[in-house]
């Protein structure tokens, strides 16, 4: 039943996009004629990169979220480098910890696509398709990625801070951030389930282990985290898996961990502690199919936020700089 209703959601979206104006149309087969190798090149690139660097999937998912959640939407502005005249999104404080593997993946895919079909595929389409393929590689749900985005021409670090959630934010504030972008509370909780893969740096949570919020942690788990992060001040790269049970598999174990006090970040504990989000945590912990259904729907919605198409934006020759 879940897959049946999800099918009709995607069918409705397809029809909606089909009736869009000619200069704002995204399609599933956008590159069939202009770059028929697109899908295969993306698959080959993400496969080789994920095998070489198993943290690539989680890194790319985070990069995708940090790009699309901003008001300018999924325009690959997160990939642009700062210039002497402007500090870019990627250099905002919250984005300094974005893993390099994700940026490297996009560069590899862009290079291969430029050799195969020059000046044809946008960096924003690459990031969207690669994120979906990497999620499915880890066992996550499949969702259609509509193509035809153009890349943005601006990227400002000053536009980042008030639009992206931080680990220390209260759940009510994070919920409001997602609500402003059109997401329900259930969809927000599902997207938080992305923490079922990847890791968090010790600096993002270690202070929570030594103050009153430590009561949210399983005591033995808190001791383990303190031990793992003992040298974080001298080694800021120290990190721990967000999901200690199945860190390399996209599943619902993250939600099963939260009632046991096995969350890493303050926001993780907040999901179970807040009465508005706890019911969805409990549902997803019991029903992985429901989690996958809502997550796929939310990712599909996220990938379509404020996309630039047609004559808007550009197809960058290099993903880190405008043409």
Put simply, the count of helices is: 12
**Average pLDDT metric:** 90
End-to-end C-alpha gap: 47 Å
Percent of residues in helices comes to: 40-55%
CATH topology name of the largest domain:
Peroxidase, domain 1
Low-confidence blocks of residues = 15-23
Q: Can you tell me the overall shape?
A: globular
Based on secondary structure, the structural category is mainly alpha
Give the class-level CATH name of the largest domain: Mainly Alpha
> How large is the radius of gyration?
19 Å
The overall strand count is 2
Main beta sheet = 2 strands, antiparallel
- From the structure provided, what is the oligomeric state, counting identical versus distinct chains? single chain
Give structural notes:
- A two-stranded antiparallel sheet has the order 1-2.
- It is 44% helix and 2% strand.
- Helix 3 packs across helix 4 and helix 4 packs across helix 5.
- The protein is built from 12 helices and 2 strands; from the N terminus they run αααααααβαβαααα.
- The chain is globular.
- The protein has 2 domains: 144 residues, Peroxidase, domain 1, CATH 1.10.520; 116 residues, Peroxidase, domain 2 (Orthogonal Bundle).
- By secondary structure, the protein is mainly alpha-helical.
Topology:
Elements: H1 2-18, H2 38-52, H3 56-68, H4 100-116, H5 123-137, H6 171-180, H7 185-192, E1 199-201, H8 219-228, E2 239-241, H9 253-257, H10 266-273, H11 278-286, H12 288-303
Antiparallel strand pairs: 1-2
Helix pairs in contact: 1-12, 2-4, 2-5, 3-4, 3-5, 4-5, 7-12, 11-12
């Amino acid at each position: 039943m879940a897959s049946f209703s999800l099918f009709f959601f995607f069918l409705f979206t397809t029809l909606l996009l089909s009736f869009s104006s000619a200069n704002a149309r995204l399609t599933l087969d956008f590159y069939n004629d202009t770059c028929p190798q697109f899908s295969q090149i993306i698959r080959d690139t993400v496969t080789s990169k994920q095998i070489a660097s198993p943290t690539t999937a989680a890194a790319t998912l985070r990069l995708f979220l940090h790009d699309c959640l901003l008001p300018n939407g999924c325009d690959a502005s997160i990939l642009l480098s700062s210039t002497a005249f402007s500090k870019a999104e990627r250099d905002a404080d919250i984005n300094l910890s974005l893993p390099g593997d994700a940026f490297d993946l996009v560069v590899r895919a862009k290079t291969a696509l430029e050799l195969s079909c020059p000046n044809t595929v946008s960096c924003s389409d690459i990031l969207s398709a690669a994120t979906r393929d990497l999620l499915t590689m880890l066992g996550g749900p499949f969702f259609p990625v509509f193509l035809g985005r153009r890349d943005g021409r601006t990227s400002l670090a000053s536009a980042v801070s008030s639009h992206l959630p931080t680990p220390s934010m209260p759940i009510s504030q994070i919920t409001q951030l997602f609500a402003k972008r059109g997401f329900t509370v259930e969809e927000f909780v599902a997207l938080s389930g992305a923490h079922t893969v990847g890791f968090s740096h010790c600096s993002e949570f270690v202070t929570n282990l030594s103050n009153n919020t430590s009561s949210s942690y399983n005591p033995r788990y808190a001791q383990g985290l303190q031990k793992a992060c003992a040298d974080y001040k001298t080694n800021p790269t120290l990190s721990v898996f967000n999901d200690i049970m199945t860190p390399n598999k996209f599943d619902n174990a993250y939600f099963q961990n939260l009632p046991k006090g096995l969350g890493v970040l303050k926001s993780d504990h907040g999901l179970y502690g807040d009465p508005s989000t706890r019911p969805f945590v409990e549902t997803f912990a019991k029903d992985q199919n429901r989690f996958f259904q809502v997550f796929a729907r939310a990712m599909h919605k996220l990938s379509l936020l404020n996309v630039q198409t047609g004559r808007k934006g550009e197809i960058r020759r290099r993903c880190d700089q405008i043409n």
